[in-house]
Amino acid sequence: MSVRKEKRRNPKTGEVWEKYRVDVVVTMPDGTTQRVRKDAPVQTRRDAERFEQELKRAILDGSYGKVETVVPTLAAFEKEFISNYAEANNKNSEVRTKKSAIKNHLVPAFGTKRLDQIGVREIEAFKSAKLKEGKSPKSVNNYLTMLRKMLSVAHEWEIISIIPKVKWLKLPLSEFDFLTFEEADRLIAGADDEWRTMIVVALKTGLRQGELLALRWDDVDLVAGRIVVSQNLAYGEITTPKSGKKREVELGDDVLAALKRHRHLRGDLVFCKADGGMLTKGESKHPLWRACKRAGLRRIGWHVLRHTFASHLVMRGAVLKSVQELLGHGTIKMTERYAHLSPDVRKDAVRLLDRPVPSGHVHTASMNAAAEAKSA
Known about the structure:
- The structure is a single chain.
- The chain is mostly helical.
- It has three domains: 3-61, no CATH class; 74-156, DNA polymerase, domain 1 (Orthogonal Bundle); 181-341, hpI Integrase, Chain A.
- Helices cover 49% and strands 11% of the residues.
- It has helices at 45-61, 74-89, 92-110, 120-132, 137-156, 181-190, 193-205, 209-213, 253-262, 285-295, 302-315, 320-327, 332-335, 345-351, 359-375; strands spanning 3-9, 16-27, 33-39, 220-221, 226-229, 232-234, 237-239, 247-250.
- The longest helix is centred in the middle third of the chain and has 20 residues, at 137-156.
- The protein is elongated, with a radius of gyration of 30 Å.
- The model has no long low-confidence stretch (mean pLDDT 86).
């Protein structure tokens, strides 16, 4: 084995640390030998062994040493990553999120390191430091996802040869708030007249706040009774829904009646200012709080109404797959947080065994049992 773990000592401080070093000796086709000794760019045994194999191939095919790739630091790579990858593949709101995470968290931790110097050890130290700062596991995982994407893109662009393994933190089951059926009725009753329809639509369709503010009359079919969710307001800009896809939401009688009463000629937007202009998320916050106060409820945000929609559906026995589609969740895992609200799901499943078996199935089972007994 040409991969060895060597101990190094800092002559100034006396500090001792270990490093994986690759010592490769390759016999060339002409019978000569070539030896290369290098520190593994990612300091785990598995990655060092992978680097060893890549080094051997490079020596044999003659590519080793011909072109010396200059690996940039993370800080230097940030600009290229944002301009050539993020801005080409992400929505503006996502680009802003990436810029913020990189500037405030990744650059301070890894900015001076070359991309090939960021290994498992450095990543684990970053996780520990962020948790000590009081960051939530979910936030730390978001930073790790951003870092993993940067390293993945660098690997695709052949800047680095290995992507270090990233271990995400385990997250507790996320808790969420929702209104009971009685509380939802009280909230609607306590709302200002001009805001009542928006609250009803939120409670009965599960649209996100940004989707409500960007909803156009062209997206509402009052005859067929459905809404096509095609837009979302994020960071003051109109963009696609969070999932990136349109979705259809069927309208019940209550929300359909509310929308018909709400019909206006102020502009294209369903919920808007008196002059037809777009409302902001900040402007729609206080009317909801006023409704909560009148209804004698705790102060909540618009996302609680989305949780309420999903919770009420599941409590009424709706199938989780249908709830997923109505909410526009990318995976069923996101919807499963509501599963525990389903009434007697496990009990109903077991009771399926108490139902009589159809006659055809009984006959087939009997024949199979008789055949098995005869052959025995």
